[in-house]
Amino acid sequence: MSGVPATAGGAPATAGPAPATAGGAPVPSLAEAVQEAAGPHAPGWDGSDRTAYRIALLELALADGRVWCLDSDMGGLEKSFQAALPDRYVDLGIAEANMMSVAAGLAATGVRPFVNTMAAFASARALEQVKTDIAYPGLPVRIVATHSGLSAGNLGPTHHAAQDLAALRTLPGMTVMTPADAEETVRMVRAAAELPGPVYIRLGRGPTEAVGGPAEFTVGRARRLREGGDVTLVAAGSLPVLLALRAARTLAAEGVRAAVLDLHTIKPLDVAALVEAARTGAGLVTVEDHSVLGGLGGAVAEALAAQAPARLVALGIPDAFATRPGGHQDQLTAAGVTAEAVHRAARAVVDGRPYDHSPHHPHHIPHRSIHEENVS
């Protein structure tokens, strides 16, 4: 069994079903309910996990006086959180390292600060402060990082965050999560608020589709979005989960039963779900908007190597900077992270042959985009 963080009272940290969400309401209904609770200053709904987070944060702060918002000139939070709760909003400017230290000081006094910045800056520029000021004393700071992976698009490598999972999951006591869609974002924020130690939540930038699945959320426990016994597709983050679901539908048409796991919590990992998958099918394929080194694929490989050796193909961003122009989808396609690639990788696992990661599209980055682990 994998470890699941406990709340201060010792129970697993879950996003308790609010009355407005009972019965698993779809994303628009949940967003509308949260917007109503957040009051007139809630930002307009656009379908993105970033906006869902900002609405959920305001709703949470209105109900809990310990919740503060620390900003780094992200834009938009001053129109929602500051407008509603000016005494609990602090904009520290483009000074992310200082912001982490301020958050640590507030948390040491009993405040529950939510720190807002881009993933590239939280995981690199401010990493020393995150490690020393927040993780080392185990303070309840929630670091919410947008523009993760390649979602910063044409802002380029300075703003891309292909290494944040690798950096943050190595910090002792740090819970690391990334939601699959806006509805899961709301549940994740609610659950994160109850955790006793530091939390890193990884968000994207623009609107994405809802993935559906069970209306439930427990930190450290994967959500099964699709059943299947031939191969398991393990994904984390909005676009990777959508790509895995699309590939699973294509595989089903070919008679291949692919399970899909939304592994929203990278740390602590749901090792039990991964071991079960390794023992019931031909192997696993991981899908992520992160480097093939040290992220979801690496975490899964580490777990399986120790407990249930299995065939694993990891799809992610190659060991190269993404310097070409283009939006989020364009960048992932250029990196070889597509539904077609997931499908081919799954077929290779089921058919028992090596995965061919040669270029299959005109803009393929001429570097390794698939990292394959043989942990058997």
Folded structure, characterized:
This protein is an alpha/beta fold. Helix content is 36%, strand content 17%. It is built from 13 helices and 13 strands. The chain has helices at 27-38, 49-63, 77-84, 96-107, 119-125, 127-135, 164-168, 182-192, 238-253, 271-280, 296-307, 328-334, 339-351, and strands at residues 67-71, 89-91, 112-118, 142-146, 175-177, 199-202, 223-226, 231-236, 258-262, 265-267, 284-291, 311-317, 370-374. The strands form 2 sheets. It has a 7-stranded mixed sheet with strand order 2-1-3-4-6-5-10, sandwiched between helices. It has a 6-stranded mixed sheet with strand order 7-9-8-11-12-13, sandwiched between helices. Helix 11 links the parallel strand 11 and strand 12. Helix 1 packs parallel to helix 2 (49-63) and helix 2 (49-63) packs parallel to helix 8. The chain is globular. The protein starts with 26 loop residues before the first helix and ends with a strand.
Short structural summary:
By secondary structure, the protein is an alpha/beta fold. The protein has helices spanning 27-38, 49-63, 77-84, 96-107, 119-125, 127-135, 164-168, 182-192, 238-253, 271-280, 296-307, 328-334, 339-351; strands at residues 67-71, 89-91, 112-118, 142-146, 175-177, 199-202, 223-226, 231-236, 258-262, 265-267, 284-291, 311-317, 370-374. The chain has 13 helices and 13 strands.
